[in-house]
Amino acid sequence: MKLKSIAVALSAAALMLSSNVFAADFPTKAVSLVVPWPAGGGTDILMRIVADNASKRLGQPVVVVNQPGASGSIALRDVANGDRSGHTISMIATGFITEQYGSPNAPTLEEFKVLAFVGTDPTVIAAGPSSGFESLEDLVAKAKDEPGKLRNASPGGTSAVAVALIESLLGIKLTNVPYSGTAPVVQAVLSGETQTGTPSVTEIASQHQAGEAKILAVASSERHFMAPDVPTFKELGYPIVYGTMRAMVAPADVDPDAAKVLEKVLLETLSDPSFQQTAKDAGFSISPMPGAEATTFFQNLDKEIYPILLDGGLVKVRQK
Questions:
Q1: What is the pTM of this model?
Q2: Quick one: which of 117, 132, 115, 262 has its CA closest to 192?
Q3: Which residues of 252-261 are buried (b: 16+ CB within 10 A; e: fewer)?
Q4: Rg of the Cα trace of the chain?
């Protein structure tokens, strides 16, 4: 009996030791940061800034891997079902909540371990030079005269919810044209392929500043520092505050020791003043939050968005 107790104690000690060794050794190779959108969009730019800065703290490179398709669902499904060692992570945004109700193949929040909240970029509605729109009032008048005729470029997800809110509160109907990411959305607006687009402010601010496109309104509580000349929807009489809210994730059953290392490194990175300034210079607002708080945040966001999706006919699966 005594020998058995000693064996059990030694076994437990070995397990603790192996766990501590893993935590100390992690990562043992480069960490892949899967971005479920094409290169060149706002999320891609921000994740590359995160990867570059996190690499310095992690002791191994953090390599961005772009895997676009199906509004991010393909990449996120692969990550959720993939490597549990912590060497493959990804990010989710507000649109992730939308996709889980639009596709049976899209993963749900429960399939991920949220590592850290990154920040929020408000959605805008922007018009191309050939549209003739100089204000939101111009767009509303045209849309009411010709319901459904105006084409709006959208990457789906967050943008799809924004469009549903805009249509509902402005009393208009747009024809939503899906694109595989925000970079193609901006190009569609600039080329006149669509009259308007609904990316985040970061993704089209430089084109607005250059006079190549015109942001008509921004969905934030106050004017954005990247486009201070643009009124908010609230200023114009429409209570729309909405945008791309991003968080870093790993598979739900990721090794807990690796998850602790990743969360610590990501929070240190996101809280670093130098990183925050670099992000701000690129147009991003950073508001870091630990994994547990971020999980609760997205759970509450799910509850808030679901009725909007249901009213807009966007709930195709997992109806509650």
A1: 0.78
A2: 132
A3: eebbebbbeb
A4: 22
Q: Which residue is associated with the tokens 């692969």?
A: 78
Q: Does position 3 have pLDDT exceeding 80, yes or no?
A: no
Q: Which of 228, 218, 207, 206 is nearest to 162 (CA)?
A: 218
Of 242, 222, 254, 93, nearest in space to 169 by CA: 242
- CA 106 – CA 229 distance, rounded (Å): 38
- DSSP assigned state of 92: E
How is the chain split into domains, by residue range? 2-121+244-311, 124-218
- What values do phi and psi take at 255, rounded to 5? -55, 125
Query: Collapsing DSSP states into helix, strand and coil, what is residue 10?
Result: helix
What CATH number labels 124-218? Answer: 3.40.190.10
Q: At what angle do helices 256-271 and 42-58 cross, to 10 degrees?
A: 110
From 10-19, 49-58, 90-99, 209-218, the region with the lowest mean pLDDT: 10-19
Q: Per CATH, the architecture of 2-121+244-311 is what?
A: 3-Layer(aba) Sandwich (3.40)
Give the whole-angstrom CA distance, residue 52 versus residue 108.
28
Q: Which of 82, 77, 80 is nearest to 105 (CA)?
A: 77
CA dist list (Å): 117 to 124, 182, 267, 297: 22, 21, 9, 9
Helix, strand, or coil here: 31?
A: strand
Judge residue 52's burial from the number of C-beta atoms within 10 Å of its C-beta, 0-12 exposed, 13-18 middle, 19 or more buried: middle
pLDDT of residue 24: 58
Residue 109 Cα distances to 80, 249, 292, angstroms = 10, 10, 13
